[in-house]
Design goal:
It contains five helices and five strands. By secondary structure, it is of the alpha+beta class.
């Protein structure tokens, strides 16, 4: 159990930096803009903080070995943390499920779901429990 807890927090420095950048963007712009505006501003802020990232990284989605489409994640930070942005008045369970599905599709342990659309910035740290369990029990 302690090993899983340690793994849950192993990317906390990186996620903390991304959240800090998002807070700066939200405090500067507030809510009410389209997602793409927040995405561009977050890219600027993460560059200023020296974070390495890819933006709108495309990923093939497979079903039983067959490519069924593509999806783009908003950011992949330091090839470790997936960041999915929203600009909605409220996050819902479907958005959380979407983020968790992306983690699995990208074979990543850690992600962030960040919502700029609410009056206060909302964020959720996401963890791919399946990947963590498989690393612990090869």
């Amino acid at each position: 159990m302690a090993e899983i807890i340690n793994n849950l927090y192993k990317n906390s420095d990186l996620t903390g930096k991304v959240i800090g950048c998002a807070m700066k963007v939200h405090s500067t712009l507030g809510n009410g803009f389209q997602e793409v505006i927040y995405q561009r501003c977050l890219a600027i802020e993460m560059e200023k903080q020296g974070l390495k990232f890819s933006r709108e990284l495309e990923m093939n989605i497979y079903y039983e070995g067959v490519n069924v489409g593509m999806r783009r994640v908003d950011f992949l930070v330091d090839e470790t943390v997936m960041v999915e942005l929203k600009a909605l008045s409220k996050l819902e369970d479907t958005h959380l499920a979407q983020g968790l599905n992306y983690l699995e599709a990208y074979k990543l342990e850690t992600g962030l779901l960040i919502n700029f659309g609410a009056k206060s910035l909302e964020f959720k740290r996401l963890t791919n429990e399946y990947k963590l369990k498989n690393q612990r029990n090869p």
